Amino acid sequence: MDLKLFEDLIALARTQSFVRAAEMRHVTHPAFGRRIRALEVWAGAPLVERNRTPVQLTPEGEVMLKTAERTVESVANARSQIQRHGTNQGMSLRIGTGRTLARTLVADWLARITHMPRSPLRGKAQIDIITGATSDLAAMLEQSKVDMLCCYEHRALSVPLNGHRYRHLTLSTEKLVPVSVADAQGKPRYSLIGASQATPLIAYGIGLSMERLLSEHFERNPLAGMNVFLRCDSADAVYEFVKKGLGVAWLPWSMVAADCQRRNMVVLGGRSDEVPFEVRLYRPRARQADVVEAVWAATEFAR
């Protein structure tokens, strides 16, 4: 039995889609389907109800899923312990997060922990920041390839981690706010409503966390008078486009707060135009390396 087949089943159960699971596992859709078939042949029973949308597991599939989750987690933990025993005596901390979070709230959090008296990050500790898509990073946490996961939490993009095996802290509450560059008088160059012509919207790339947050927000709060002028998969680039006066964008408050205080940018609209969400830190419930436990305890203390 190849362990990757168990990982495939876990991905399929999480996404409820052969296409999305194949993308998560970085294989083609046909190849992923063949691997699930191979697991069913090995198990001796159908594991997936293919005629249902979204895809559901059969009762036998649910039994196999529980075994797969336990097995993958156990093997990953053993591998992690062996690697840590031989490298830096468990003083490496691996954090998975998004690119925008890495430069904003994660940087602030690590600075607070580092500057605490008797900080667990002083001395020999080494921090590795791994950025990527939340779904990929969640899989890495399950495979013990990262020690902690810092990500957004919102009904539009909840992280599908098993609450029995993982715990979380809320690091911060955050919000996306619509902003425009300010003119020489400190007034916004663009507005959300009442403009004589359509306001250019700087949007996020399809599938990004920010894009999913905004799509859900616009479904509930349709905005007239805005046209997508530019789309980009980098919040840092979107920020620069706004600064250069190319249009309006919804950006994290932590990213634009200083600009708004200096009147270089102006927040548009009101509370109903903001998109609030949480920033959460996840870790396994099982005992981890000393540095992970120490950083977690320091984070709980500092909240």
TrEMBL record:
The keyword NADP does not apply. Residues 1-58 form the HTH lysR-type domain. Keywords: DNA-binding, Transcription, Transcription regulation. The keyword Membrane does not apply. PROSITE patterns: HTH_LYSR (PS50931). InterPro entries: LysR_HTH_N, LysR_subst-bd, WH-like_DNA-bd_sf, WH_DNA-bd_sf. Pfam families: HTH_1 (PF00126), LysR_substrate (PF03466). SUPFAM superfamilies: Periplasmic binding protein-like II (SSF53850), Winged helix' DNA-binding domain (SSF46785). Belongs to the LysR transcriptional regulatory family. This is LysR family transcriptional regulator.
